[in-house]
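Appendix C reproduces, verbatim, an entry submitted by the partner laboratory led by Prof. M.T., so that reviewers can inspect both the input and the predicted structure.
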Amino acid sequence: MRDPLQFDQTFLDDPAVDRLLGAVMTLAAELHVTRDHARVLEKLLIDKGVLRADEVVAFVPDANTAADWDAGRDAFIESLMGALQGITRARDGERS
């Protein structure tokens, strides 16, 4: 069985800088993928006449959707803060 907490390796002189760099790289990768997917989805939906471009900006989610999105945001923030603390989470949800 794995140790539930495993701290990151240190590559730079200051481990805090390593953690900050890890957080920045995680954010950059996440942002790139999200932007790419959003552009593709918006383009496909507009081209197929499913929605108008202005509907994306004007959209307001219902309560259930907002709650789901809030939970996803909270999980993302927890992951980001873990990176800043030098703690990573394995894909299966187990802390590693």
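DSSP finds three helices and no strands in the chain. Additional entries are available on request from the coordinating office.
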